[in-house]
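R.M. (postdoc): so does anyone remember the format we settled on? I'll just put the C-alpha coordinates first.
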Protein backbone atom coordinates (compact mmCIF):
# COMPACT_ATOMS: atom_id res chain seq x y z
CA UNK A 1 0.00 0.00 0.00
CA UNK A 2 2.95 2.29 0.64
CA UNK A 3 4.03 2.11 -3.01
CA UNK A 4 0.54 3.11 -4.13
CA UNK A 5 0.44 6.07 -1.73
CA UNK A 6 3.87 7.15 -2.90
CA UNK A 7 2.72 6.88 -6.51
CA UNK A 8 -0.33 9.05 -5.83
CA UNK A 9 1.75 11.68 -4.02
CA UNK A 10 4.36 11.86 -6.78
CA UNK A 11 1.65 11.95 -9.45
CA UNK A 12 -0.11 14.82 -7.69
CA UNK A 13 3.17 16.70 -7.37
CA UNK A 14 3.90 16.14 -11.07
CA UNK A 15 0.47 17.43 -12.11
CA UNK A 16 0.48 20.48 -9.84
CA UNK A 17 4.16 21.51 -9.97
CA UNK A 18 5.76 20.31 -13.21
CA UNK A 19 3.06 20.26 -15.88
CA UNK A 20 2.59 23.39 -17.98
CA UNK A 21 -1.10 23.78 -18.66
CA UNK A 22 -2.15 25.71 -21.80
CA UNK A 23 -4.18 28.90 -21.43
CA UNK A 24 -7.97 28.65 -21.63
CA UNK A 25 -8.23 30.41 -25.01
CA UNK A 26 -5.75 27.94 -26.52
CA UNK A 27 -7.82 25.05 -25.17
CA UNK A 28 -10.94 26.55 -26.75
CA UNK A 29 -9.19 26.93 -30.11
CA UNK A 30 -7.90 23.36 -30.05
CA UNK A 31 -11.31 22.03 -28.99
CA UNK A 32 -12.95 23.90 -31.87
CA UNK A 33 -10.37 22.52 -34.28
CA UNK A 34 -10.98 18.94 -33.09
CA UNK A 35 -14.75 19.40 -33.30
CA UNK A 36 -14.62 20.78 -36.85
CA UNK A 37 -12.20 18.06 -37.94
CA UNK A 38 -14.43 15.36 -36.45
CA UNK A 39 -17.50 16.76 -38.19
CA UNK A 40 -15.69 16.88 -41.54
CA UNK A 41 -14.47 13.32 -41.07
CA UNK A 42 -17.97 12.13 -40.13
CA UNK A 43 -19.41 13.86 -43.20
CA UNK A 44 -16.84 12.24 -45.52
CA UNK A 45 -17.48 8.79 -44.03
CA UNK A 46 -21.25 9.35 -44.33
CA UNK A 47 -20.93 10.31 -47.99
CA UNK A 48 -18.75 7.28 -48.69
CA UNK A 49 -21.29 5.04 -46.96
CA UNK A 50 -24.13 6.54 -48.98
CA UNK A 51 -22.24 6.14 -52.27
CA UNK A 52 -21.18 2.54 -51.59
CA UNK A 53 -24.64 1.56 -50.38
CA UNK A 54 -26.32 2.91 -53.50
CA UNK A 55 -23.63 1.51 -55.80
CA UNK A 56 -24.07 -1.96 -54.31
CA UNK A 57 -27.86 -1.72 -54.55
CA UNK A 58 -27.55 -0.76 -58.20
CA UNK A 59 -25.06 -3.55 -58.79
CA UNK A 60 -27.26 -6.21 -57.14
CA UNK A 61 -30.39 -5.01 -58.96
CA UNK A 62 -28.66 -5.51 -62.29
CA UNK A 63 -28.74 -9.31 -61.81
Amino acid sequence: MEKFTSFLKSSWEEITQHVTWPPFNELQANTTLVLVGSLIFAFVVGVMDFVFENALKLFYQSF
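R.M.: ...and that's the designed sequence above, right after the C-alpha coordinates. Also worth knowing: The chain has a mean pLDDT of 96. Residues 24-61 form the longest helix (38 residues).
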